[in-house]
Amino acid sequence: MTGSKLLIVEDDAGIRELVCLYLKAKGYEPITAENGHRALSLFQSEKPALVVMDVLLPDMSGLQLCRTIREESDVPVLFMSCRRESEDIVNGLGSGGDDYITKPFDPAVLVARVEAQLRRYSMPRNGEDSPQVWKDGYLEIDPLSCEVRIQGKEVPLFAKERQLLLFLFRHPNRIFSTVQLYNEIWGWDSTTDERTVMVHIHHLRKKIEEEPARPKYILTVRGFGYKFAEVAGR
After folding, report:
1. According to the UniProt entry, which residues carry 4-aspartylphosphate (predicted)?
2. Are 165 and 202 in contact (CB under 8 A)?
3. What is residue 28's three-state secondary structure?
4. Which among 184, 192, 139, 190 has a CA at the least distance from the CA of 164?
5. How many CB atoms lie within 10 A of CB 152?
6. Of the candidates 164, 171, 166, which has an alpha carbon nearest to the alpha carbon of residue 146?
7. 17: CB partners within 8 A, 6+ apart
8. CA-to-CA distance for 49 and 15, rounded, in angstroms?
9. What contacts 24+ positions apart, CB below 8 Å, involve 33-36?
10. Which helix (H) or strand (E) holds 223?
11. What is the C-alpha to C-alpha distance for residues 208 and 21, in angstroms, rounded to an integer?
12. pTM (whole model) above 0.85
């Protein structure tokens, strides 16, 4: 993915220039915007492979910008923000973000997360999948097309939610820790943020479980992690 265009949305010129400097050193082509409206214009005209954006922008929230991007694209979105509370991270990932890094940050770490997102996004989606559709009368998973349906209606999942579900689905009844899931789906194994996994599990349950508080498919194994339950229909 070296040479890919990456959109950097940041109103602080110093941070913007620093991020661009590190990305250029890795062979990427950063394009920059200092506000949300300029970012949307560049996103539509330049078709970047990934977006790095601040949450606090002068003309609109980065969360709003991410939701707008998600209406037309599933390219990776990485938030960088001085807001570090769990609620802030939940809101960022819930708006469609794939990862969240807090300021101040090591630019080398940011670049590593960018590269991990690009690798995961460019991976073939059908390589490990069986062509057989799985369904149990309520939930339906098509591993070949990566589509998920509830009672025949497609579920609108964000990219990382879909990747997480399909990964767990491919390994039924196998327990994965939050660290293992983060490494598999996000691909960064040095500064694992367990909250990222927990937030995506939370949103995924809200979308596919009949009773999210009493999940049937994605189960928590206390002290160990999560698993996709082997239920009737497989």
Report:
1. 54
2. no
3. coil
4. 184
5. 7
6. 166
7. none
8. 20
9. 33/7, 33/8, 33/9, 34/9, 34/10, 34/58, 35/9, 35/11, 35/59, 35/60, 36/9, 36/60, 36/61, 36/62, 36/64, 36/65
10. none
11. 41
12. no
97 and 81 in contact (C-beta within 8 Å)? no
Map residue 194 onto helix, strand or coil. helix
Residue 10 predicted with pLDDT over 60: yes
| Residue showing tokens 């890919």 | 4
* 81-107 confidence digits (pLDDT tens): 998 888 888 899 989 999 999 999 999
Contacts 24+ apart (CB under 8 A), 192-198: 193/89, 193/100, 195/86, 195/89, 195/90, 196/89, 196/93, 196/99, 196/100, 197/164
AA identity, residue 139: L
Residues 6+ apart with CB under 8 A from 183: 189, 192
